[in-house]
């Protein structure tokens, strides 16, 4: 056992440009969202494994003897994530009562945790430990909350099992893992995502692992080496939507009007590529107002294209109108049809303007946060570097 007590966090994700077009072979840009999931793992001597998820009012404990019975002829390799062990998943589903389609958030989070725990420790002595996770991310909003959770679990359990070292030195506040260790964290997090979502793209867990910005094209995920940190408002319209229905709607429109819709998809592709070019310029030369002008125009053009595709919504139009009245530019992020939107803030945007905009959006019945995109991926924390109110939650037994 390498680590007895560890704090880790991982970011959520937003799609900056390319949602829907990515389904049709175009580039999408996914960025880390600096609303994070925080996890504390503490090794105990209670003979129990406990998980606390206060966001969803869930707290569960199991005796090690119960968990040992779930492992038959275990032969997994811990230093590489194998294909999902369907037999273990089936046993765990029965164990947590998640059979016959009972797939609520609590069951899925529990399944994912037990799967990674048993896969990493199943070939030896099972340790007793307590895991507590607190997330700043709303669930079910398309912001990668389950992936941030899976990435935190993978990092903490891999460290505790001794497969990867803990990167934090005693004088550090935060620390990141090396590339090789991040790849292992990412592959185990993807297993957790497969349990929760069935057939995920891998984008959400990759953003949670590497942070910054990723380019996603035809199933290939490429982390971009450096991106500037951009201030944004993130708004949740709280209008529920079905990603599957919206994806089908876009496909129908492309089939119905191919000569009209194909150029729209090509234009969205060009927006993603232009945005990537501007952001990489911003990391290697002085940032100017012109950079922000271009970013704002790209946001406006892409939002119009998404409306043309049929994935807009009156609540998103309202978001764009309210923010434009303050001179700010917004677009939907993710599936559309409601859900979330992002608003770019310039470095010089006055804090009173920001506060006024947030209040106006809340008056519309929306949730709104000021945050940033492009920040770090999964990291280990010293307790001092965790926000006080989050630390208090993680330290509750």
TrEMBL record:
**Cellular compartment(s):** Cytoplasm
Please classify the protein's predominant subcellular localization into one broad category. Answer: cytoplasm
Q: Where is the GHMP kinase N-terminal domain?
A: 124-206
| Record-level GO BP terms | cholesterol biosynthetic process; isopentenyl diphosphate biosynthetic process, mevalonate pathway
The residues covered by the GHMP kinase C-terminal domain are 294-350
Q: Which Pfam families match?
A: GHMP_kinases_C, GHMP_kinases_N
Catalyses which reaction(s): (R)-mevalonate + ATP = (R)-5-phosphomevalonate + ADP + H(+)
Q: In which pathway does it act?
A: Isoprenoid biosynthesis; isopentenyl diphosphate biosynthesis via mevalonate pathway; isopentenyl diphosphate from (R)-mevalonate: step 1/3
rRNA-binding is among the record's keywords = no
Its Gene Ontology molecular function terms?
Answer: ATP binding; metal ion binding; mevalonate kinase activity
GO cellular-component term (any): cytosol
Judged by the first EC level, this protein's enzyme class is: transferase
Gene3D superfamilies, per this entry? 3.30.230.10, GHMP kinase, C-terminal domain
Question: Which controlled-vocabulary keywords does the entry list?
Answer: ATP-binding, Cholesterol biosynthesis, Cholesterol metabolism, Cytoplasm, Kinase, Lipid biosynthesis, Lipid metabolism, Magnesium, Metal-binding, Nucleotide-binding, Steroid biosynthesis, Steroid metabolism, Sterol biosynthesis, Sterol metabolism, Transferase
EC number(s)?
2.7.1.36
Task: Tell me which domain of life the UniProt entry assigns to the organism this sequence originates from.
Answer: Eukaryota
Please name the PANTHER family in this protein's record.
MEVALONATE KINASE
Assigned protein family = Belongs to the GHMP kinase family. Mevalonate kinase subfamily.
Task of the protein: Catalyzes the phosphorylation of mevalonate to mevalonate 5-phosphate, a key step in isoprenoid and cholesterol biosynthesis.
| Name of this protein | Mevalonate kinase
Organism in which the protein naturally occurs: Amphiprion percula (Orange clownfish)
Q: What is the lineage of its organism?
A: Eukaryota, Metazoa, Chordata, Craniata, Vertebrata
